[in-house]
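Check out a protein:
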Amino acid sequence: MGNVSHEPVAPDGANPLRRLSLEQLRRRTSMKWRTYPDDVLPLWVAEMDVPLAEPIAEAITAAVGLGDTGYPAGTAYAEALAGFALKRWAWDGPAVERTAIVPDVMLGVVEMLKLVSAPGDPVIVNSPVYPPFYQFVGNLDRPVVEAPLGPDLRVDFAVLEDVFRRAVRRAARPVYLLCSPHNPTGTVHTAAELTRIARLAREHGVRVVVDEIHAPVVAAGASFVPFLSVPGAENGLSLMSASKAWNLAGIKAALAIAGPEAADDLARMPEEVSHGPSHLGIIAHTAALRDGGDWLDALLSGLDENRRLLADLLAEHLPSIGYTPAQGTFLAWLDCRELGLGDDPAEVFLRRGRVALNSGNTFGTGGQGFVRLNVAASPEVLTEAVRRMGSAVP
């Protein structure tokens, strides 16, 4: 395994990304650690190599001790999100009465699309973008229409407006599915950008549904702005969750949030959708938002260190790769087109270097020749992975 340490490299209370050894991580049975053989370093799917935050573990343990494993009830999750949003983003917008629990963010997206569009109505996305946008939307019988990001990996407003114009000519109820922060690029949209999006959507009669699952994960110097907080977004619908920031993908729960003008839309969501989230998931996510702030701050600091480390490692081992440290998420979008590895460099890095990354091809237009790398690993694993990637290039 090269230079990867098999022992924990920092004491309790330090950077969560330095708390678990590779040996401990390989005992996990989740997708990240079971998809590839043990000689592969997995830096692909958006799971983090961290222990569970203590407040979350305590809340789950207490619930299990009580046998509190029934059906979900109450508004504790929404109340915790409201408190977190006020503290972190100075936003008092997620009114409890305009929220609903949903199984997870993507299933919540599906339910929101059902409320504000019909089969055949186009759903606009900014490619390259999170692959499930294509999969879930397509399975819902809504055609995906791309409005590719600009060369700077930000929203190209000329392209977006043109797509809006064409969409409203072909369908009665087009929807713009916005990813904020953007996955895979890690772009954090500014208040000005989001305000312009809201204005354009209103002008053209396009509804906005926004996936804000990575909202708590921002780099130092960046500020997340909730879409529903900007002028003109009052008829928008948002999906939020503690899933990514606290590594809770396996304990499912999310919240749908309606702007003031979309409250009636959300009220039409079938009651049985609220049966989908796990009661333990809601307990875990509530604890994360309410009591997991210190743990999150330690994680964010560790991610900042890893972004800087990745830049240094690429400069040393793969200087031809284009990389700009992301403002948000724990993902890195790497431009490998100058390496001569073809349209799918992830396949080469896996085959020759035994490093698993996400293929850019699955992210739609603009993804060919790119890979997505998960930086939420220990510095030792990240260092060994990039060394292997470098050795895979002729």
Summary: The two ends are 21 Å apart (CA to CA).
